[in-house]
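Blinded run. Sample ID left blank on purpose so nobody reads anything into the name before looking at the predicted structure. Input follows.
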Amino acid sequence: MNYISRHMENRILELSKSYSAILLTGPRQAGKTTMLRELAEKEHMGRSYVTLDDLAERDMAKNDPALFLQLHKPPVLIDEVQYAPELFTYIKIHIDKNHHPGDFWMTGSQIFRLMQGVQESLAGRVALLHMSPLSQREITGAPCMPFTVNLERLLAERNQIRSVTTPELFARLWNGSMPGLVSRQYSDRNIFYSSYLSTYIERDVQNLSGSIDALKFNRFVTAVAARCSQLLNYQALADDADIDIATSKNWLHILEALGIIFLLHPYSNNVLKRTIKTPKVYFYDTGLICYLTRWSSPEVTESGAMNGALLENFTVSEIMKSYQNAGREPYLYFYRDRDAREIDVILEGDGRLYPLEIKKTATPDRRLTRVFSVIDKSPLQLGTSAVLCMAEQLGAFDRSHLIVPLWMI
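Blinded prediction complete.
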């Protein structure tokens, strides 16, 4: 199996020089453990490895955390640490006593339950990072850069990244970004995703919420996938899966906690009073959406009814990953008001708002940028805007409105 180098590697090594504990969260099979074990070999510190997927180790970590840490002395990599939050207090005691950077590397697949224990025990002592499945930049070997509409940087980068056609981009979108599939460790995509759902997601959901009806849960995840890039509607999801609205909210919260989906919240402030309050829902991996919604090939996906929603999901998740991989907090929003005016993505930074429109066209029309003026009333300045599309090369309508090909994200 070929190891695909991850953008987060340098960030981990950097943080290991100042933090005693690093906690890397993210969905299962995203490559967290593979990357950390690869890094552990490179650092030559004799870092030991233990996984709490092993029931005997988990039992010891929960019932005798002091003995567990005696047997697994730092520097140590503890996998799936969410199974034993009892460890956190003992890790804190060890850190306070020894103050040794890089002692604990930990991974976890259950984000919100895990955060609770971390915030109580390790606040200020742990560096928290989130890893998603592979970004397109990682797959193609492009440099690690949070997405920006800075023209100078885009001009400098355009020759470092190979351009792709629309069919090639949809092939990437359909194939998905799971390391096991991208590296060809698993050749059958359908078997990979079906076992991913039954082995990991269902098991983790049961861990978090008690017994579940697997068939209804599968219907629920499929209903969420069918509504990717749309406003979140708990009632519609509940109706599709034949569950009540409380279960619908609980299951969606769990999918978010497991790093399968994320919510994009609407941009609003005191001046923009007509904005809606409902978030939109996106998956980190578009391959999983295509599997769940039964798109059988990249060609059918490209011409199918969901192509716009899938392209939007792909673009938003790539922008999100570009920030996470650099260890930075992404300030991403969308805009929609009661007059049905909409901006797909708003990037906030340095006191400015950068509106982005996503379109499956190679020749975007300047009129697409008109809607950006709705955020003129915002207290923040309007920065450079861009239409992200299937254009062959970087272009512009003028200095303030760029045309950015999706392969550059």
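Unblinding after everyone has recorded impressions. The chain is about 40% helix and 15% strand.
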